[in-house]
Amino acid sequence: MALEKSKSFFALAISSLLLLAACDGDSSSSPVTPSDSEESSSSVTLAKSSSSVKSSSSVILSDSEKSSSSVATAKSSSSVKKESSSSVIPSSSEESSSSVKAASSSSVLSSSSLGSEGTIASSSSTGEAGWSWDVPKEERLNSEITYGSMTDSRDKKVYKTVKIGEQTWMAENLNYADSATTPSLLERSWCYNNDSANCVVAGRLYTWAAAIDSAKLYNDKSIDCGYRKACALPDTVYGICPPGWHLPDKTEWSKLFTAVGGKSTAGKILKSQTGWNDHIGTSGNGTDAYGFSAFPAGGRGNDGAFGGEGLYAYFWSATEYGSYNNPFSMDLYYDTEGASLYSYSKNVAFSVRCLKD
Fold first, then answer.
1. What is the per-residue pLDDT for 232?
2. Segment 266-292, tens digit of pLDDT
3. Are 131 and 275 in contact (CB under 8 A)?
4. What is the SS3 assignment for 264-292?
């Protein structure tokens, strides 16, 4: 199925559950918690070269800890594997009891080496097929949409905005980086490939602790809301969003899906019109009918490796899920028209889109 087959890059990183360790603690091995019952139920235990790779850790949120995870990340060979070596295990009783095998005609193990079914195309100046960081973000926005704008009072950056249904969204990924003012960002946000020019195009990638602004929420360093522990979150998580905006929760992402016609086609509608890789001869680009303009900016794994450019878009939510209390991300893939909500390890780094209060 498309949802399972397309979760290749961050299946490589999410088996580790380290958020940002303020101190050492007992560790436990665990699979990754899946999303809710709307999605196929699975905990992913990744296999590398046919041998299972698992990582364990305990985590504690604080305002000054550093990530120190070591994750075995599968590197791709010169060809795309026809079938994923990931084994998918059903999770808790909250999920459906079916066990799903992740079979894929394009289980991409790194963004730098797709194989026989299609190399990552370098976009032309119009960015018609495949991703290129050299294409300015303005060329990827929908020219038929009349965007609004907002200015982040903290750093004076200006963002396009768009109203979809009853919600007003940033039409660009957040690119806020002031770790002096916002300590949660210290060593918890990055530009793709550590190239500052890439942040100008597609914003920064943030761990979940950075996205919720954990240092501001939890001044008490004794608070433990990491591995298998629920964070005491307020009803509205403003996180690192500009004043007047907040980090959307799972319900608000679902409301967006409904506004654009439903989850099964939301990916096609929310994805940008250019920049997405083809899949077996079919364009991965979207219609961007509402101007959400989701770029395939990929993400950063627990091991510090970047990947997924041209293939995936991941956006944090403010909602945790299941016995492992992993936060949801809204996911879009190059090889499917749907949108997904899956839960991930808290210290992979994803994009942030803010929603107006």
1. 87
2. 999 999 999 999 999 999 999 999 999
3. yes
4. HHHHHHHECCCCCCCECCECCCCCCCCCC
Are 27 and 217 in contact, with CB atoms under 8 Å apart? no
What span, in angstroms and rounded, lies between the C-alpha atoms of 132 and 124?
Answer: 8
Q: How far is CA 161 from the centre of its chain?
A: 20
* Mean predicted confidence (pLDDT) in 241-263: 98
Question: DSSP secondary structure string, 184-212?
Answer: GGTTTEE-GGG-HHHHHHH--EE-HHHHT
The one-letter code for the residue type at 111 is S
Q: What distance in Å separates the CA atoms of residue 30 and residue 228, rounded to the nearest whole number?
A: 10
Residue 259: its H or E element: helix 250-259
CA-to-CA separations, 320 to 54, 237, 267, 312, in angstroms, rounded = 22, 12, 22, 21
Question: Which letter, b or e, does each residue of 207-232 get, where b requires 16 or more Cβ atoms within 10 Å of its Cβ?
Answer: bbbbbbbbbebbeeeebbbbbbbebe
